[in-house]
């Protein structure tokens, strides 16, 4: 009987159930597994250190057949060693010892020169390899916020990598976490296909005016994305002492393709605070995209210890944003909210939810555990539009004070079309289950499975 060639798509489907390490081991089996293993190996390229493996990887990427497989590039600039390698020639070593004896700064200068030489070498190797990649759709550059970074790395891996090569022409997603001083270099960068921008801002103790000057230049880059930008995420860190996100949003124009906006900032509102009584720039930016937004995320993060008290109203920034949501948000189907600042009274949140419950497909509530009565109120917001049940909601993630059979029953009845249910809790109660977490969670999973079917 003649052999039948198995289509490549079949091998690809099989490979989805095989771990990457096993795929590499199976590469010699046939051409299909070899091609799949190569794709898995190179489609996500991480450059986070510099060693023999990194040098080999950069050399491999210059091969067009391998470079064409790369879809994601992640760079986290590394620390370059300042160790000076001794010369293999004895006379040179002797001369170096004499110079060190005569000039106490000689060793320091040699170490500095060694670092600069290695930096130039590393940068050129990365630019030669990454700059020629044609099919990359996602680029992530990440700073770990340590003060002793090499500024040359961030300068080179933003511009000229994105400005002087074809690398950026195919990008659709860009995640940016760099020292804020390097952001102005992006003003002249053009990314014609970019749809998703994720920005992490960490300004440290920079003076307020200097931060604003840096933002002025960075906004030029963001506004140049107006024809294509669909998703915009901004994260600010608690170490940013003089950051005003309202200044950023005041300078941003309208983005006709924008569908998703996410904001993560210290939950006390220090970076988005504005006097009450009138809409603030962040709120106005969201409002002018109301009729096109499909997803909103308002997330709180860790706050810094402060010597100067913050206006108590600053903590109501999420309240104010939600209060502005009305019938104009006709496409909004996904909402994620940090509700910790509603601790005493969740009714303002439920008032907002009442307006959009009929159209929501996904709801995520974080950072505050709901009591049984809160879950009832949540269900009531949806029940107004669905004859006692939520007809549109497919995804729900909430925190609970206590997981009980009654809560599970309430969720199962009120949200019959859920396909994903994520419950976070610290306590479990219910005599019927003997207070056994495994049995109760098993029941929750069973309910989800029934709803999927």
Give a quick precis of the structure.
The protein is an alpha/beta fold.
The secondary structure category is: alpha/beta
Between the first and last Cα atoms, what is the distance in angstroms?
42 Å
> What best-fitting shape do the alpha-carbon axes yield?
globular
Helix and strand run: HHHEHHEHHEHEEHEHEHEHEHEHEHEH
* Percent of residues in β-strands: 5-15%
- Rg, rounded, reads 27 Å
Task: Profile the largest sheet.
Answer: 12 strands, parallel
Helix percent band: 25-40%
Spatial order of the strands in the main sheet? Answer: 1-2-3-4-5-6-7-8-9-10-11-12
Give me the number of helical elements: 16
Q: How many strands appear in the DSSP assignment? A: 12
Average of pLDDT? 85
Low-confidence stretches: 446-453
InterPro entries: LRR_dom_sf
Protein name: F-box domain-containing protein
């Amino acid at each position: 009987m003649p052999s039948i060639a198995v289509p490549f798509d079949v091998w690809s489907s099989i490979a989805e159930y095989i771990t990457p390490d096993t795929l590499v081991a199976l590469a010699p089996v046939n051409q299909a597994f070899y091609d799949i293993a190569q794709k898995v190996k190179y489609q996500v390229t991480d450059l986070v250190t510099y060693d023999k493996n990194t040098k080999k990887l950069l050399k491999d990427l210059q091969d067009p057949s391998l470079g064409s497989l790369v879809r994601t590039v992640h760079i986290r600039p590394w620390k370059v060693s300042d160790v000076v390698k001794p010369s293999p020639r004895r006379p040179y070593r002797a001369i170096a010892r004499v110079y060190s004896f005569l000039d106490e700064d000689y060793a320091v200068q040699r170490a500095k020169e060694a670092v600069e030489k290695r930096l130039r070498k590393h940068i050129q190797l990365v630019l030669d390899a990454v700059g020629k990649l044609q099919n990359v759709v996602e680029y992530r550059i990440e700073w770990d916020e340590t003060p002793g970074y090499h500024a040359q790395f961030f300068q080179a891996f933003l511009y000229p990598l994105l400005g002087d090569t074809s690398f950026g022409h195919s990008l659709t997603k860009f995640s940016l976490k760099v020292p804020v001083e390097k952001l102005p270099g992006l003003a002249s960068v053009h990314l014609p296909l970019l749809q998703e921008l994720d920005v992490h801002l960490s300004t440290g103790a920079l003076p307020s005016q200097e931060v604003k000057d840096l933002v002025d230049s960075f906004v030029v880059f963001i506004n140049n994305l107006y024809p294509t930008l669909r998703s915009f995420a901004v994260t600010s860190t608690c170490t940013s002492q003089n950051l005003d996100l309202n200044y950023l949003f005041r300078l941003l124009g309208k983005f006709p393709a924008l569908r998703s906006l996410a904001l993560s900032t210290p939950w006390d509102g220090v970076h988005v605070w504005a006097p009450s009584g009138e809409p603030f720039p962040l709120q106005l930016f969201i409002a002018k995209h109301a009729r096109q937004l499909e997803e909103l995320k308002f997330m709180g993060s860790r706050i810094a210890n402060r010597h100067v008290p913050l206006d108590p109203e600053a903590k109501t920034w999420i309240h104010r944003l939600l209060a502005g949501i009305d019938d104009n948000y006709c496409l909004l189907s996904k909402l994620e909210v940090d509700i910790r600042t509603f601790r005493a009274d969740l009714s303002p949140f439920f008032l907002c939810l009442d307006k959009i419950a009929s159209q929501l497909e996904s709801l995520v509530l974080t950072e505050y555990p709901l009591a049984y009565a809160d879950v009832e109120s949540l269900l009531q917001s949806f029940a107004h539009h669905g004859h006692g049940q939520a007809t549109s909601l497919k995804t729900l993630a909430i925190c609970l004070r206590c997981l009980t059979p009654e809560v599970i029953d309430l969720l199962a009845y009120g949200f019959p079309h859920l396909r994903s249910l994520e419950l976070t809790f610290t306590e479990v109660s219910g005599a019927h289950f003997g207070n056994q977490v495994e049995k109760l969670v098993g029941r929750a999973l069973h309910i989800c499975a029934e709803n999927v079917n």
